[in-house]
Amino acid sequence: MKREADEQGLIGALSTGDISPDQPAWHIASPQPLPAPYELKPMPSGTAGLEGEVIEVSIGPHHPSTHGVFRMDVVLDGERVLRLKPVFGYLHRNHEKLGEQGTYLSAMPFTDRLDYFCSLTNNWAYALAVEKLAGLNVPERAQYLRVITAELTRVLNHACMIGFLLQELGAMGTPLMYAFREREKILDLFEALTGSRMMCNYLRFGGCRCDLPPGWAEQCTRVVEGLPRFFDEFERLLATNEIIMARTQGIGVLPADLAISAGVSGPGLRASGVNYDVRKVDGYGIYPRFEFGVPLGEHGDVYDRYMMRMLEMRESVKILQQALRDLPTGPVIDPKAKLRNFRPPAGEAYGRLEAPKGELGFYLISDGGPSPYRYRIRPPSFINLTVLEDMCIGHTLMDAVAILGSVDIVMGEVDR
Amino acid sequence: MDSPEQIKARVEAALPGVQLELRLNPAVPAESSLVVAPAHAVAVARFLRDDPALRLDYCSNVTGVDWLDATVKEKVKTRRLVAGEEQEVEETIERKRPGYLEVVYHLYSVALRHGPVVLRQRTRNRFEAVQVASLTPVWRSCEFQEREVFDLFGVVFHGHPDLRRILMWDQFQDFPMRKDYVEPDDYEYEPTPHDEILDKARRHYPTGGTA
Amino acid sequence: MDEGLRSELSKQGVFTTTLQELYNWGRSNSVWPLNFGLACCAIEMIAASMARFDISRFGSEVFRPSPRQADLMIVAGTVTKKMAPLVVRLYNQMPAPKYVIAMGACAISGGPFKQGYNVLKGIDRYLPVDVHIPGCPPRPEALLHALITLQEKMRGEPLAGPAPARHADPAAPGEYPVPAYGPYDLTPAKNEELWRPAPLPRGE
Q1: Average pLDDT rounded to a whole number, residues C150-173
Q2: Which of A23, A387, B52, C23 is 20 to 30 A off residue A243, Cα-Cα?
Q3: Cβ contacts of B151 on chain C, cutoff 8 Å
């Protein structure tokens, strides 16, 4: 409602003609006024002395429910949210500037630290963009290894996300402990393969850094076989839990058209019923070879966003089973790919993929030199937060915490 | 999906008076971009979003790019007298190109599942004429991303509902992603094999002693 | 008391202690950390508190969201210049005795992001750090090791005498100045009394 009014006001101002050159170069807009429907109404009679007043609360950047160093400036009427402005930048680590200062390859370890739950999909997104820019091919075995590691990452991320969401709903510890138990199993696989638990730095342009160690595929198959049991256990514990349903159903509804316009991606977009999965749409890597479904939500509320993660983990297991079954032999890196003195031709490329949190993209401009002229990350967590205010307005503060948890953000990626 | 050339022709046919410039991309030709003047940007964006054959309803990525003043070398064919007869000669001329800031939009269609179409806006220079039109009224996803471009590059988006710094603190006075940004001098010696970092440390301690 | 006499007594079933030892033993076995994560390392900090690594074996599972209830600040992750004043303020809000663990390369020196314009090059520019843990990120075992190191330090802290522990010394500052946001950098860029840059070796 508020947005449409804004839009018309702006269009009216803009369509009249050119931008006048005497606009001040430094122009900071004043904060928006409170949305009209939520102005304070006089209290009913007989409650004299109990009139509420609007209070402004700054939640974060150090707050246990804000996933690290995220801050929300919230205007409250009692417990009801009137306005919610996210404040970013407390983890702004200048990733893009550092990426432009080093070589193409030296940006790869930095991508690990973007979304530090999902270093392998970050690696892949960056490798995808560079391969598109330089026209590199990826050998068959490396493609399978990329799919296997990416889907393991997705399971890991979704399990932890559900754990954190439940923690914010008040289930202190227990679901998170279940999730971290599975995370440790997957991290052991990553550590055996890449040498590091979290910061894997595994992919290279045109392939992967190294081949599987002996016994890895068997161990991975065992872990994947054990996952459905964990999902069943997790779902039995949570999916029909009365408190969870009461706290999440109908909360933070995101309509599909707003979700598309606001660039929401990943499970958050599909929970609103939009069938858009970059794995299916772009068919990058070898995803068209696998049979898997794209779960879709109906209501677009917190519960649907939670269920999307649950269902996607099951689909990931299907992909993992197929990939482990068909894993071919062969080289894991294109022999023509150059690691040292790598200079892609001048031009630009935008590569994107379906990271666990949404569409992760890398935009690179090359001037033919050894380092990118422009290195830009399209962070899904950051853009998914655009509609946080729209989802929270009118709900209580404790629901705002649950809604934030259901968006699934990681500050390393939000602020970069 | 239509090629960038076809989209350019469609836009120019549908919106009289609008001129788009095609910026070729040699690496990925399908991602050649359309440069639109800020005065027409909202109308063009609206057309791209609403045209039934394009329906670019999803603005995925908004990026700022800083182009410094540069000398561009161009190869031009001219006719001139060589050894008594007129020949076509290719010669390189150097041209000074003033710097500008650029905002790049990557557009996709969720409805028709195609993309990307790359749209660009340019400012007139890098100092005082840094206004472009905000596309937040067309695609809501530009809201935070344009704020980020404003914060890090200093592009002013005309018509943005809430243009404030987003990543740096409000009192900050520079645009750190610009190519000529100078960082605060807080380097310190560290045992490192990287020459450039050692150079920075030497500049910081000119006498070579303790700080 | 003489160590030999004490050992003899303990063989006879008589255990002796001092108030200082008893006090340090008690608090070193119940270090309550601040529930405070900055970046990647915070995930490993959470992992350390989960079933596999189980930080509660060392009495530190009670992560407190409020600085008023915490003894230990684990600076887990990159401290940016935008965040640094808030970290110092949180430290100032903690009651003494209080300790700081700098977890990971970023908290120690800026780590991989050291060249960034918004990255603080080590939290020891503003706060006194008791234990540094290298690694990017350090494994949960490394955090446990840092905790044990800190416990050893706490057990050896004298409560009186010529060089008492920080919290027992009335002359030692309990709070540190909070830097302000400046137009280009934090002002001041470092706490001069607390931190001096390493000397640049000559003749290399």
Answers
A1: 85
A2: A387
A3: none
Give this complex's ipTM.
Answer: 0.84
**Which amino acid makes up residue A49?**
G
| E strand or H helix that includes residue A7 | helix A2-14
My answer on whether B197 and B158 are in the same domain is no
Q: Cβ contacts (< 8 Å) between A29 and chain B: which residues?
A: 160-164
Residue-number span of the structural domain to which B24 is assigned: 4-66+100-180
- Whether C179 has its CB under 8 Å from any CB of chain A: the answer is no
Calpha distance A255→A271 (Å, rounded): 10
- Same domain for B58 and B132? yes
Domains with residue ranges and CATH for chain A = 95-415 (1.10.645.10)
Radius of gyration of chain C from Cα atoms? Answer: 19
When CB atoms are compared, the residue of C117, C121, C185 closest to B188 is C121
Cα–Cα distance list, A281 to A290, A309, A352, A355, B110 (Å): 14, 19, 11, 14, 9
Distance from CA of A186 to the nearest CA of C (A): 13
Q: Which residue has the tokens 């002693």?
A: B209
Q: Kindly tell me if the per-residue pLDDT of A99 is higher than 80.
A: yes
**Banded pLDDT at A47 (limits 50, 70, 90):** low
What SS3 class is residue C119? strand
SS3 (DSSP) at A185: helix
Q: Model confidence over B119-153: pLDDT tens digits?
A: 999 988 888 888 899 998 888 889 899 999 999 99
Structure tokens at B64: 């700022």
Lowest mean pLDDT among A58-67, A83-92, C18-27, C104-113: A58-67
Residue ranges of domains in chain C, CATH in brackets: 32-156 (3.40.50.12280)
Mutate to test the interface with C, among B169, B180, B181 (most CBs of C within 10 A): B169
Q: Cβ separation of C51 and A98 shorter than 8 Å? A: no
CATH number of the domain bearing residue B39: 3.30.460.80
